[in-house]
Amino acid sequence: MEVFDKIQDTQIIPNQLSPAIGIAMLCIFGVFAIIMILWQRTIIKKIKLISGEEPKCAGELLLCLFIPFYIYYWVFTRARKLSAAAANHNVHIKDHGALYLVLTIFALQLIALILLHINCNKAEKMIAEAQQAGQRNVPNRLNPEFYAPAPISNNNNRQQRVESPMTDLIGLAKLKVEGKITLEEYDNRREEVLAKL
Fold first, then answer.
1. How far is 58 from 48, CA to CA, in rounded Å?
2. H-helix segments, the chain
3. Which of 12, 25, 48 is nearest to 123 (CA)?
4. With contact defined as beta carbons under 8 Å apart, do 80 and 93 qualify?
5. Containing H/E element for 152?
6. Backbone phi, then psi, for 180, in 5-degree steps?
7. How far apart are CA 122 and CA 86, in angstroms?
8. Torsion angle in degrees (nearest 10) through CA of 3, 9, 15, 17
9. What is the pLDDT of residues 24-40, one digit of tens each?
10. Domain-by-domain residue ranges, the chain?
């Protein structure tokens, strides 16, 4: 009995280390939370690109973070959206929305996100293969340049993307520095752009 009392009285962790361990655990939790947020953002962007939408994800991410239980709805509907978007590209991705929902309800959201991300990667790969094989005229929605403004051509018939006069000026400067246009062409184009302002 005395041995048991001595074991109970001894401290395994000294008092000086207790606050440090608590701070370390908070830091680990914070880093894990940031990684989960960035990972969910990546999944949102991939699903939007596959479904042909503009890859803006701030609103959806904020809803998942701050609205209680929205993550259940999000996991279920995004699995269906991914399956439907893949079907538009003649790619079969099985709808596992119910499975993801059950996993999320039983606090296994990490596993549900892993499976959803695997399906996103699978859909991207299969759509890219279909585009390369030319099975169907599928717009290259997985390429971020798909959402860039329409191209214009310069005097050398090179393609250049233009959003505004300022981006046009930056693009012209890059072409001049790279040696793709002459100084005279640069000056003429710059005057045209400045005239638009």
1. 12
2. 2-9, 18-50, 58-66, 70-88, 97-105, 109-133, 165-178, 183-196
3. 48
4. no
5. strand 151-153
6. -85, -20
7. 10
8. 30
9. 889 999 999 999 889 88
10. 29-133, 150-196
- Side-chain-side CA neighbours of residue 147 (13 Å): 12
Task: Copy the structure tokens of residue 182.
Answer: 């002459």
Query: Is the whole-model pTM more than 0.70?
Result: no
- Sequence-distant (6+) residues with CB within 8 A of 179 are none
Whether the Cβ atoms of residue 80 and residue 95 lie closer than 8 Å to each other: yes
Reported confidence tier of residue 161, pLDDT bands at 50, 70, 90? very low
Between CA 14 and CA 56 the distance in angstroms is: 49
Residue 50 has which token pair?
């596959």
Find the helix or strand (DSSP H, E) in which 11 lies. Answer: none
- What is the reported pLDDT for 143? 47
Assess contact for 172 and 186: CB atoms under 8 A: yes
Greatest extent of the chain over all pairs of C-alpha atoms, in Å: 97
Task: With CA atoms as reference, report the closest residue to 81 among 49, 41, 107.
Answer: 49
What is the distance between the alpha carbons of residues 29 and 68, in angstroms, rounded to a whole number? 19
Which of the 8 DSSP states describes residue 150? Answer: P
